[in-house]
């Protein structure tokens, strides 16, 4: 326990000393916001969530800073055909410095779920702030509405090979899940995405919110660097 406290003390001291220097360097050398956000995100310390009043931005934030999602759909597998099921998949909506809002997956037809989705592509993706350390630092149970979660409902689309979107999906996923580059070619992995039709957000007491899809895509989850970001981190 004493060692853990000592480590945290030094981390806090490091951030306290380096944050003003980093902010000053941004002003002096005119770093672009994308570069700054990439540096912050790449340390695995995303900026704090947006205000709960901005439902669309909160939804985009959760999606962008999530590394995995629970995909739910109706199964067409033997013995469980017609029953609901869910499975976790690695996910990315873009490199850490570039959020598209579109969640991409990398799957193989050796897996029964993508085969199901060729029969009926209706599905949902669920992501939560519980994936990171925000909720644990705030002592929030994953079911606590303040430990925000978003459900994206829509249709799963398999992306055409050798297209611009295929290239973006590859960059989005491989940049955040580098192990994917080593997965066997013989399994014929392919990229896919969720074509979002509706959104359900739970981020505070009082029930679900339903941000419009168009507002979701207009929202900007990447925040400018500020002292408040580092205060929240500490």
TrEMBL record:
Keywords from the UniProt entry: Glycoprotein, Secreted, Signal
Domain CREG-like beta-barrel: 50-218
Coiled coil: none
Record keyword ATP-binding present: no
Domain of life: Eukaryota
Pfam family of the protein (one): CREG_beta-barrel
Entry-linked InterPro entries: CREG_beta-barrel, Split_barrel_FMN-bd
GO cellular component, one term: extracellular space
Gene3D superfamilies: Electron Transport, Fmn-binding Protein, Chain A
Location within or outside the cell: Secreted
Similarity comment text for this entry: Belongs to the CREG family.
UniProt-recorded name of the protein: Protein creg1
Species of origin: Triatoma infestans (Assassin bug)
């Amino acid at each position: 326990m004493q060692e853990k406290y000592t480590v945290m003390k030094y981390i806090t001291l490091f951030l306290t000393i380096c944050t003003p220097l980093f902010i000053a360097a941004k002003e002096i050398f005119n770093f672009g916001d994308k570069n700054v956000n990439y540096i912050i995100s790449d340390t695995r310390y995303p900026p704090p969530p947006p205000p709960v009043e901005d439902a669309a931005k909160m939804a985009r934030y959760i999606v962008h800073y999530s590394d995995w999602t629970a995909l739910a759909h109706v199964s067409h597998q033997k013995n469980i055909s017609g029953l609901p099921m869910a499975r976790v998949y690695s996910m990315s909506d873009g490199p850490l410095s570039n959020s598209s809002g579109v969640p991409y997956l990398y799957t193989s037809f050796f897996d029964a779920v993508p085969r199901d989705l060729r029969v009926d592509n209706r599905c949902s993706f669920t992501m939560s702030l519980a994936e990171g350390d925000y909720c644990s630092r705030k002592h929030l149970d994953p079911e606590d509405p303040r430990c925000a979660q978003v459900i994206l409902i829509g249709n799963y689309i398999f992306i055409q090979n050798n297209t611009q979107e295929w290239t973006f999906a590859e960059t989005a996923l491989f940049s955040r899940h580098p192990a994917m580059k080593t997965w066997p070619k013989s399994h014929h992995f392919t990229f896919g995405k969720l074509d979002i039709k509706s959104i359900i957000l739970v981020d505070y007491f009082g029930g679900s919110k339903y941000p419009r899809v168009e507002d979701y895509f207009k929202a900007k989850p990447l925040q400018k660097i500020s002292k408040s970001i580092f205060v929240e981190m500490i």
